[in-house]
Amino acid sequence: MIVVNFSHPLSEEQQRRIEALTGQTIDAVYDIPCQLDQDKAFAPQIAGIIDAVPVLAEDWQTNSVLVNLPGLHNAAALVVAELHGRMGHFPACVRIRPVAGSVPTQFEVAEIINLEAVRQEARTRRFPGSANK
After folding, report:
1. Helix (H, G, I), strand (E, B) or coil at 126
2. Predicted TM-score (pTM) of this structure
3. What's the structural domain count of the chain?
4. Is residue 130 part of a domain?
5. Is residue 129 domain-resident?
């Protein structure tokens, strides 16, 4: 599995948790800085950032790819849209949360969110003639 990390570096413990939750071995972790120029359009910047990930076009479509999204919501939405276009489906994402009561604050992997599965489930809630189209 390839992990593309657009956020803070993942600790060894977090990586072990990802492997436990996915049942897959991490083959590569790519830490990709996601600093955006607020005075320029975000979409081309995100495309450029993803172009910098050392993954071949074919690999996006054929390998297991897990993404740790950037914290900035607009950037995260654009990363998901860009990856969907390259992969042909939504990626799975890591959700990180603070460890309750930790001082200093520590973070753990809370879950893996399969966005494609969320999309498929959401499709079951579309009803003809309703506002949920």
Report:
1. coil
2. 0.90
3. 1
4. no
5. no
Q: Which residues of 5-37 are buried (b: 16+ CB within 10 A; e: fewer)?
A: bbbeebeeebbebbeeebeeebeebeebebebe
Locate tokens 């309703």: which residue?
Answer: 130
Residue 4: phi, psi to the nearest 5?
Answer: -110, 115
Q: Is residue 133 part of a domain?
A: no
Q: Which domain holds residue 64?
A: 2-123
Cα(34)–Cα(15) distance, rounded to whole angstroms?
Answer: 20
Per-residue pLDDT of the chain (133 residues; tens, 9 = 90+): 999 999 999 999 999 999 999 999 999 999 999 999 999 999 999 999 999 999 999 999 999 999 999 999 999 999 999 999 999 999 999 999 999 999 999 999 999 999 999 999 999 988 766 555 5
Token duo for residue 33: 């800085």
**Unique residue bearing structure tokens 């494609």:** 116
